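Worked problem 6 (solution included).
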Amino acid sequence: MQSGDIVFLTVIGERKLKENFIVGLTEVGATVFNVVYGRGFVKANDFLAAFGLVPENSKVVITCLIKQSKADSAFELLNEKFHFDKPNTGIAFTIPVEDLKF
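Solution. The predicted structure is:
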């Protein structure tokens, strides 16, 4: 794996899905995982609830490395299996990694 082809993938989602995230991301080629537990800070109110935006406090933040060429597969997995394309399910993004040495 050359460093120019690697991206740093961050996934923030429901804590109870941690194992499922890791298994799915491993299957699409992600490696070198780091898992941190978090807590949401947004308070629910009637206005947000009316739009279906009810915060879930128990979060997991997963970071990993994946080839740029496989990043689309990771996003497809997150959308199809974990419904990241719907509100209140999670967020994921990549950051390019350059000059990484193994």
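Discussion: The CA atoms of residues 64 and 78 lie 14 Å apart.
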